[in-house]
């Protein structure tokens, strides 16, 4: 019963670590954590036989916990995308007792810490390339719980009506996606392209938020001024 669990790949010529008995919850946790790392590295086409070997268990034992590969992938997606999503983030964004720049800066630091990891970024891209609906589900979740609240707080920041009066428009959401996607692309450059990046991501977040809000204020002020100006008579 002794021996390590074999959570890493055996070296060439080395036998996988012997399997030991674990409680059901511990074994399930081992499989999920190992599958997250495995699919992030190999993509969703990675086979379960190799995953089982890496974990130091048999393929039939893996299927005892997850009867199909799709069952395992779905559990991985739920674990890494939705269970890491903190519902308290929506309340943080809407807390008007604090300046909006502070709220957005703290939110993106928390969000990046939970999501912009090697496994998260790579699994998100592999899921999209495989045509999985997880991306559409996650995008809808982010729009409802993050981007619409951000749009509403930007309206308040700019002195515009609440979304309860005028619904958030597609144009507003798309504009906020551009800002949100810019920070996401930082993680892409780090984990996918291995590009040279600044190590001070928190300062980058604060500067990006400040630039976005300053731009929003100027655009809104210009739009309000144009709307209030008397219309010119047509000759």
TrEMBL record:
The keyword Repeat does not apply. Residues 25-84 form the HTH tetR-type domain. Residues 1-23 are annotated as: Disordered. Residues 47-66 bind DNA. Gene3D superfamilies: Tetracycline Repressor, domain 2 (1.10.357.10). Residues 11-23 have a biased composition (Basic and acidic residues). PROSITE patterns: HTH_TETR_2 (PS50977). It holds the Pfam family TetR_N. The keyword Amino-acid biosynthesis does not apply. Keywords: DNA-binding. It comes from the Bacteria. One of its GO terms (molecular function) is DNA-binding transcription factor activity. PANTHER family: BLR6905 PROTEIN (PTHR30055:SF181), HTH-TYPE TRANSCRIPTIONAL REGULATOR RUTR (PTHR30055). This is Transcriptional regulator TetR.
